[in-house]
Amino acid sequence: MEYLLFIAYLAFFCWLVVRIPFLKNAGLSRTVLLILFFLKVMAGLTIGWLSLHYYNAGNDYWDLNREAWKEYQSLCSHPWDFFTDIFRSPYAKGYSGLFDSTNSFWGDLKNNLVIKLVALFNVFSRGNYYTNSLFFNFLVFFGHVILYRLFSKIYPGKKYRVVIGCFLLPSLLYFSSGIHKDGLVFLLLAILLYSVYNSFQKERIGIRRLLLTVISLVFLFLFRNFLFFALIPALIAWVWSEKSTWPAWFSFLMAYFTCGLLLFAIGIVFPAVNPLEVIARRQADYLQLPISATPLHMDTLQPYISSFLYHAPQALNHVLMRPYITELPSVILLPMNIELLIYQLLFLVFIFFHEKRNKQAKANVLLFMLCFTFTVFLFIGYIIPNLGSLIRYRSIYLPFIIAPLLCGIDWKKIYANNKLII
Question: I need a labelling partner for 359 at 20 to 30 A (CA). Which of 99, 253, 308, 312 fits?
Answer without folding.
Answer: 253
